[in-house]
Structure formats: structure tokens, C-alpha cells
Design brief:
This protein has seven helices and three strands, in the order αααββαααβα. With about 190 residues, it is mainly alpha-helical. It has a domain at about 1-35 and about 100-189: Alpha-Beta Complex (Cytochrome C3), CATH 3.90.10. The structure holds heme C (3 copies). The site of one heme C (HEC) has 21 residues, from strand 1 and helix 4.
């Protein structure tokens, strides 16, 4: 009984968390249609009294030529990299080699939501293995136990998504593989 009660509480917490995320989406409809980059002097992060602010490009100038996204800072950074709009330095040390791994991991524990295909390729173009292994994720598909509740709490995928990578309101970018009632039990064996 105690265990069941615990699960019910967890699910409730996930639902409340997701409602908050969805509510945030609902009050920001403008951000999903047109870019709305504030000038640095008005973004309430930079001090408008500092004259050196003029040395920085405003986001509307710096970001408007990049492939558009509807969320976060409204740039699709994966596309920007793929299409060659940006070519970031791998490291401040000139001899660093990057290791891009083209390996997808399907996470199926998504209830009634579409499943999550985690792409290594798009991550290892920016990140070294040690950012995620073995502390955050085990190097074995399905071995790391976590759910949406943990992610909304800023753990696992939520360490970066919602912080430096696209936000958690973009459910479909992660929940991107349709549930197939026939395929799941067959593949799960
Ligand atoms: C952004 C985070 C992240 C980075 C960076 C990353 N991985 Fe992973 N890796 C994961 C996740 C998430 C899983 C799935 C873990 C799970 O399901 O429990 C995984 C799983 C794996 C697996 C198991 C695959 C399987 O089918 O069992 C291997 C092997 C692996 N990673 C190797 C690497 C290597 C090598 C690198 C660097 C080139 C790397 N990973 C970089 C997140 C990452
Ligand atoms: C950054 C990627 C990412 C985003 C964005 C994301 N999810 Fe998830 N979600 C996951 C992963 C990974 C799991 C766990 C899958 C597993 O363990 O096999 C998960 C699990 C879930 C589950 C299963 C129940 C649970 O407690 O784990 C639900 C329901 C869910 N997500 C709903 C949502 C909704 C609704 C949104 C948008 C508001 C969303 N997710 C956004 C990655 C994401
Ligand atoms: C260490 C940081 C980090 C972690 C942890 C992380 N991501 Fe990401 N993820 C990124 C970055 C950086 C990008 C590229 C920038 C962007 O899209 O915002 C990205 C991009 C993605 C993309 C977009 C790929 C594309 O083709 O557009 C998906 C899907 C994704 N992540 C899913 C996940 C899931 C699911 C997890 C957890 C299992 C996860 N990520 C964990 C940093 C991370």
C-alpha cells in the first residue's frame, strides 16, 4: 500500500510540474510565432548605464540570420551547426580531438507520451562523453532510472535542457518516436 501511495504522489507531482510548464507556454503565445529579442539595454540582465554595452551586438542583429526555433533564444542551434552557420572552437587547447558518436538510444518509459530517442550525434558535436558518463548516465541503454519528474527538477536531461539547451516546454523534440502498441512488447524482449 505504502509503495502504491508513493507512486500516486510522484505521478501527481509530475502532472503538477507539467501543468506549470504548459501554463507558461499558454501565457507566451507571441514567442511561438515571431522572434522577440529584446535589446540588451532592456533585457534586465545588462546594465543600461554601462557605456560598454554599445560594443556588444544586440540579439536581433546577432541571431536573426540563424535557423529559427520557436523556443528558448529562438535559434535552432543543432541546425546552425549542421548547416555551417557556426563553427565553434572545440577547445581552447589547439590539439584537442572531438569524438562524435552516431548512436541513438530509445527510452520507452514514457507512459502515454511518444517515446524518446536520445541522439548521441547531436550531443557529442558539442559535448565530451565525460559530461554525461558515468555520473549522469550509465553507458548501457535503459540502465539509468529516471523520469520526467527528475528532469523537471533539473536532473538528468534537465541539467542542460531548460538551462543551456532547448527548454522542457518543447515536449515533441524529445518525445519524438510515436508509441506503437505492437512494436513495444516485441522489441522489449
Ligand atoms: C548529453 C549526454 C551524453 C553524452 C555527451 C554522451 N552520452 Fe552516451 N548515453 C547517454 C544517455 C542518456 C544514454 C542512455 C543511458 C540509459 O538509457 O540508461 C547513453 C548510452 C550510451 C551507451 C550505451 C548504448 C547502448 O545501446 O547500450 C554507450 C556505449 C555510450 N552512451 C557511449 C558514449 C560515448 C563513447 C560518448 C562520447 C563519445 C557518449 N556516450 C556521450 C548520454 C550521453
Ligand atoms: C529534454 C528531453 C525531454 C523533454 C523536452 C520532455 N521530456 Fe518527458 N521524458 C523525457 C525522458 C528521457 C523520459 C524518461 C523516459 C524513460 O525513462 O524511458 C520522459 C518521460 C516522460 C513521461 C513518463 C512519466 C514519467 O514520470 O517519467 C511523461 C508523461 C513525459 N515525459 C511528459 C512530458 C511532457 C508533457 C513534456 C513537455 C511539457 C516533456 N515530457 C518534455 C525527456 C523529455
Ligand atoms: C550535458 C548537457 C545535455 C544533457 C545532459 C542532455 N542534452 Fe540534449 N542537447 C544538449 C545540447 C547542447 C543540444 C544542442 C543545442 C540545442 O538543441 O539546444 C541538445 C540537443 C538535443 C536534441 C535535439 C537534437 C536535434 O536534432 O535537434 C534532443 C532530441 C535532445 N537534446 C534530447 C536529450 C535527452 C532526451 C536527454 C536526456 C536523456 C538530453 N538531451 C540530455 C545538451 C544536453
Amino acid at each position: 500500500m505504502a509503495i502504491k501511495h508513493g507512486i500516486a504522489e510522484r505521478l501527481l507531482a509530475v502532472c503538477v510540474g507539467l501543468c506549470i510548464v504548459q501554463a507558461t507556454l499558454a501565457v507566451e503565445p507571441v514567442s511561438r510565432t515571431a522572434p522577440h529579442w529584446l535589446p540588451l539595454a532592456q533585457d534586465e540582465l545588462h546594465d543600461p548605464a554601462v557605456s560598454a554595452l554599445n560594443l556588444l551586438q544586440n540579439p536581433s542583429e546577432a541571431l536573426s540570420k540563424f535557423p529559427r526555433d520557436v523556443a528558448g533564444n529562438q535559434v535552432d542551434w543543432v541546425k546552425a551547426l549542421e548547416k555551417g552557420y557556426i563553427r565553434p572552437h572545440v577547445s581552447i587547447r589547439s590539439n584537442t580531438q572531438i569524438k562524435v558518436l552516431d548512436l541513438d538510444v530509445l527510452r520507452r518509459n514514457t507512459g502515454e507520451m511518444d517515446m524518446v530517442l536520445f541522439p548521441h550525434k547531436q550531443h557529442t558535436e558539442w559535448l565530451a562523453c565525460s559530461n554525461c558518463h558515468e555520473e549522469l548516465f550509465k553507458s548501457k541503454a535503459g540502465a539509468t532510472k529516471f523520469g520526467m519528474f527528475d528532469i523537471l527538477n533539473g536532473e538528468y536531461c534537465g541539467r542542460c535542457h531548460g538551462a543551456v539547451a532547448f527548454p522542457l516546454t518543447e515536449c515533441k523534440r524529445c518525445h519524438n518516436v510515436p508509441l506503437s502498441p505492437i512494436a513495444i512488447p516485441a522489441q522489449a524482449q
